[in-house]
Design brief:
Elements: H1 2-7, H2 15-34, E1 38-45, E2 51-57, H3 59-75, H4 82-86, H5 88-113, H6 123-129, E3 136-137, E4 140-141, H7 142-148, H8 151-176, E5 183-186, E6 191-194, H9 200-218, H10 227-230, H11 236-249, H12 252-262, H13 271-303, E7 325-327, E8 333-335, H14 346-360, H15 371-395, H16 397-405
Antiparallel strand pairs: 1-2, 3-4, 5-6, 7-8
Helix pairs in contact: 2-5, 3-9, 5-11, 7-11, 8-9, 8-11, 8-12, 9-12, 9-13, 13-14, 14-15, 15-16
């Protein structure tokens, strides 16, 4: 009864939520198609006779335009960013409905136009896995656009909205208590602004999501060679997860922290514990960023598609000069240099450590903020097991040699 009376009204789609979500999608599609960037080639597509498709990677340009536009809309009062967190329930529902509509529409288009691939004959399964391999509108690859531009930007803006909301709440409480707001004087007094009153845990989540979205934008040229873009079709699994799943399930820690603040029960930690989590996050991010960069740039170097970027930040050891590897009879090279000489899945280890920090920053009063790390661990363990079986079958004795050279999966000398 409590859900029907108090919960359901907070997630019913509204006109404003629909406009926010759909205009965001349209704007992201527009900037993806029009802003400058680098063009890279994907892997040869067997169904297209080995053709390598072109991918316009202008994520950084679109990201900076987004930030400038959001700041302008917020500070002019045209669209205060806090509207996002106020409407987060209805926006989530709109995203879920849109994910289902796009899934069905893409499936029908694929079947009618004959662009379907690897169909099983089971409609539910084919809806889930998809029909079209390379859906495009003009120069925009919808699968990559959906995977990079929509979920991570939305997740960041949800956390940004919550952080600003928390700042406003705490400022209002200080004013109500008769306190004079602290003012920061910057650049020798040229700029004065109210001190940021957002709690450290919410600032932590904002930083965590900022690092993630910025990494996706600055390293977008590495995405076309990934499994999702090369092999997976555009079905419910990718469509729904990126339109709705990622932005509105990975934000549980943010929502939990803000709700505690709204209830005047903010989460607080010691300076030592807070500092420890910030340092852990940054170190794990460094390994995750550079491990992914090493692997994907190694692949691109081998195929002659590597493009050197100057996007910020380019971290040390992101590109291996003379990488070591195991040459397979299949023709592929299995990287054993950089982070990859210590464990076979260094990016997963770092990713899981970041996910755990997202939960730890919320404390231990609720299990809800730990959904992400539990879910993510389950997904990665399953993916690793599937990947090991696939590689053993594909490479045989060469994979055995690779495992001999890199015997540990996640943690050096332990596991």
């Amino acid at each position: 009864q409590e859900f029907w009376a108090n919960g359901l009204p907070t997630i019913v789609p509204t006109y404003r939520a629909t406009m926010i979500y759909m205009l965001f999608n349209v704007f992201q599609l527009f900037t993806a198609a029009t802003l400058p960037g680098v063009t890279v080639l994907g892997l040869p597509v067997p169904s297209l006779g080995g053709k390598q498709l072109e991918y316009l990677c202008n994520g950084v340009a679109t990201w900076y335009v987004d930030l400038v536009l959001v700041a302008a809309l917020h500070f002019t009062g045209v669209f205060p960013i806090t509207i996002v967190i106020d409407e987060v329930g209805p926006i989530m529902s709109v995203a879920m409905i849109w994910g289902i509509i796009v899934t069905i529409g893409c499936y029908v288009v694929g079947r009618v136009t004959g662009r379907d691939h690897r169909m099983s004959g089971s409609i539910p399964y084919d809806l889930f896995m998809g029909a079209i391999l390379n859906p495009r509108i003009g120069n925009v690859d919808l699968k990559m656009w959906n995977e990079i531009r929509i979920p991570w930007k939305l997740l960041f803006f949800v956390s940004l909205s919550a952080a600003v909301k928390d700042h406003e709440i705490n400022m209002a409480r200080e004013l109500h208590a008769g306190l004079t707001p602290q003012v920061w004087s910057l650049f020798g007094g040229m700029i004065e602004m109210n001190a940021i009153k957002t709690s450290a845990p919410l600032l932590f989540m904002l930083l965590a999501h900022l690092l993630y979205v910025n990494a996706c934008m600055k390293g977008e040229e590495c995405i076309p060679t990934t499994w999702d873009i090369f092999y997976e079709k555009w079905g419910f699994m990718l469509i729904f997860w990126n339109f709705a799943g990622v932005p509105f399930s990975y934000c549980y820690s943010t929502l939990y922290l803000l709700n505690r603040s709204l209830a005047n029960e903010p989460i607080q930690h010691s300076k030592f514990f807070t500092t420890f989590l910030f340092v852990t996050l940054l170190l794990a991010y460094y390994v995750w960023d550079t491990a992914n960069s090493q692997k994907n740039r190694f692949r691109m170097q081998q195929r002659g598609t590597f493009v050197e970027r100057k996007t910020f930040p380019q971290l040390p050891w992101g590109t291996l000069k003379k990488p070591t590897y195991v040459q397979t009879k299949h023709g592929n090279k299995l990287l054993t240099g950089g982070h990859w000489r210590f464990v076979r899945k260094p990016h997963y280890t770092a990713d899981l450590l970041m996910a755990l920090s997202w939960g730890l920053i919320t404390g231990f009063d609720s299990l809800i903020p730990y959904f992400y790390v539990v879910f993510f661990t389950t997904v990665l363990v399953h993916r690793v097991g599937r990947d090991e079986i696939h590689c053993q079958s594909k490479y045989g004795a060469d994979f055995d040699e690779y495992c001999r050279q890199v015997p540990y999966m996640f943690i050096p000398f332990i596991f």
